Every structure is written in C-alpha cells, then in structure tokens.
C-alpha cells in the first residue's frame, strides 16, 4: 500500500535502498563520515552497512582464509566496517545477478546476503558481479532511526548508487553527497543559532 511507504507530507517513511550519510560534527565517533547503505527499514527497526570505512589490516582474501574458503585474487578487496553492532558477523551487499536462499532485496540494483554461500560463490568465480563485504552492521530499534532523523546528525541521501563498489571506500561519503548535488567540503560541523 503506497500510503504505508510515505508519511503525511508524502516523504518516504522507510529508507531501505537509500544512503544514510553522517553529517560533519556527529557526536558518535562510530559514525564519523559514515555512508550507510540502508538495507532493511520497517516498523520493526532498521539495518544498514557503513560502506565508507575499511577494517584495517584485513582483505577479503584474509577473511576467506580465516573461514576456510580457498580464494585467489582477492588480496586487494577491502572489508568494510559495517557498523558497531555484532562486528564478528559478516554481510555482503551485492548486485542482484546472484541470489542465495537467504538473500534479501534491498533496491533495484542491490541485495543483501549474510551466509557463507555468497562468499563461496565469489571465491569460485560464480558470485555476484558487484559486491561490498562488511563486518558488523548499524542497527536501530523500532522508531529509533525516525527519532534520530529529527535531530542534527544524519542526511537522507539518494538511492544506493549502482556503481558504489567501484568508488574507493574513502571517497564514498563525499560521492554520495555529490549524488544529491551537495559539495561535502562546504558542510559545517555545527549548527548555528539565529
């Protein structure tokens, strides 16, 4: 039902498939320059992956070796810090040309998988064409994100870019602002009082 997807002003009520961007000056250091791909958002809460910060010292090849998966040519593929919740749990945001039994549709161009079958498929060369791997996630309980959106800190960006995986992780935050016509260099870290 369309009215369930929008509020009284016609604005989107839920943000799955969109980018949630941290504004400069956000007080929570877990989200400094975060670019969160919103994967799930409904009445029960929200889940997203920060795709702008790499986990230091670990590549996708390292992660796969640790899971006992043989993989070649993935030493340069970064693993993202998806967020502060459950940092040992892995997720793959990937193109919709691959789908496992636990894949969840996120947007027209993206799906989310959290099982080992997607990593095995990537290692074997039969996985999704585009993907971003993350450890941990950013999560909000029922109504929590909606409340946070009424305060300074977050900017609701455009749809998750179809080419997001081709943008260097350290440029994804500014890239997503640019997709909304905003030069991130001009954003202020504090709000003023008039």
TrEMBL record:
A Gene Ontology cellular-component term: cytosol
Residues spanning the membrane: none
Q: Which SUPFAM superfamilies match?
A: VC0467-like
Q: Name one Pfam family in it.
A: DUF179
Report the sequence similarity comment from the record.
Belongs to the UPF0301 (AlgH) family.
Record's protein name: UPF0301 protein GGR43_001987
Query: Which species is this record about?
Result: Sphingobium jiangsuense
Lineage of source species: Bacteria, Pseudomonadati, Pseudomonadota, Alphaproteobacteria, Sphingomonadales
